[in-house]
Amino acid sequence: MTEKTGEATSKVSLPLVIFSGKTSYIINSFEGEFHTHKGVIDLSKLKDLNYGDEVETHLGFKFKVRPFSLSDFFKHFRKGPTPIMPKDIGAIIAFTGLRPDSAILDCGTGSGVLSAYLAYFCRDGFVVTVEKRKDFAKIARKNFELAGLKNIHQIVGDIFGLADSIKIKFDLIVLDMKDDDKFIPKARELLKNSGYLVVYNPYIDATRDAYFAMLNNNFQDIESFEIVKIDYEHKRAGTRPSTRVWHSGFLVVGRKID
Ligand SMILES: C[S@@+](CC[C@H](N)C(=O)[O-])C[C@H]1O[C@@H](n2cnc3c(N)ncnc32)[C@H](O)[C@@H]1O
Asked: Does 27 have pLDDT greater than 60?
């Protein structure tokens, strides 16, 4: 946070993050009270601060203020169904040539983590996200509000039943839901020419079905792969991997080229 970037002296805007050591909270209102583990903060005190300033709880405990970033979001999102991990989101963005103005359909909103990341990167585009369970859609909506994202259009319903009513075409469609392979013909219809389809599935058998469904539906440049992230712990005695469960899901990426 240097003067050059303007962050040290610039006034805060929402959402923002307050932190002390490894503890942090996302704040997205200047009204009311916020309860931390070290006391209560009067949120109206925040609005005249600059990034780098401190705010005190009623117990006198100090938190510093910094700008919000989506990496803060992954730590703080409300948890529902298992979200896609950042490593896999990175692959989706990199392998599909996502642009700031992309139109995206995310099938299986779940906790909304993937939708949030995609909407954040596609500032001039939008994400239509579809979830069949009302309770999960509610969790995702709270997460979108927390992250201050406005370019996400949430639909509550079964994508198999409502796909015919979607009249726009997309640059990217992601399927992270049951029976993904059965939706592939419809996904092809909903894609723009040159658009990408990504199927994310934790099971290798289902991934194989998705691969062949994409092949049979004339998708091009199909790749099926897994991204593995191994964390390391560095101690005085030496360095060793600390990741116990490294598998999250398999990705199949293909392109509609007519
Ligand atoms: C693993 S979660 C998705 C997680 C999400 N990608 C994230 O990053 O938070 C799968 C979700 O798909 C939803 N789902 C399954 N079949 C669906 C369908 N036919 N239409 C809409 N949503 C569906 C489930 O209810 C579940 O919430």
From this structure: yes
In order of their start, the domains of the chain are: 16-68 (3.10.330.20), 73-255 (3.40.50.150)
Looking at every residue in the chain, the average pLDDT score rounds to 94
Which whole number is the average pLDDT over 198-210? Answer: 98
Rounded to whole angstroms, how far apart are CA atoms 137 and 131?
6
Residue percentage of the chain with pLDDT more than 70:
97
For atom 18 of ligand 1, the residue with the nearest CA is: 158
Q: Please name which of 151, 153, 149, 174 lies closest in space to residue 69, comparing C-alpha atoms.
A: 149
Is the CB of residue 83 below 6 angstroms from any atom belonging to ligand 1? yes
Give the predicted TM-score (pTM) of the model. Answer: 0.92
Which residue, among 6, 135, 109, 116, has the nearest Cα to 72 in the 3D structure?
A: 116
Q: Is 14 annotated as a binding residue?
A: no
Tokens of 210: 């998705």
Tokens 């490593």: give the residue.
87
Under 8 Å between Cβ of 152 and 138: no
Q: Is 131 close to ligand 1, i.e. is its CB under 6 Å away?
A: yes
- Asked if residue 125 has its Cβ within 6 Å of ligand 1, the reply is no
Give pLDDT tens digits for 181-193. Answer: 999 999 999 999 9
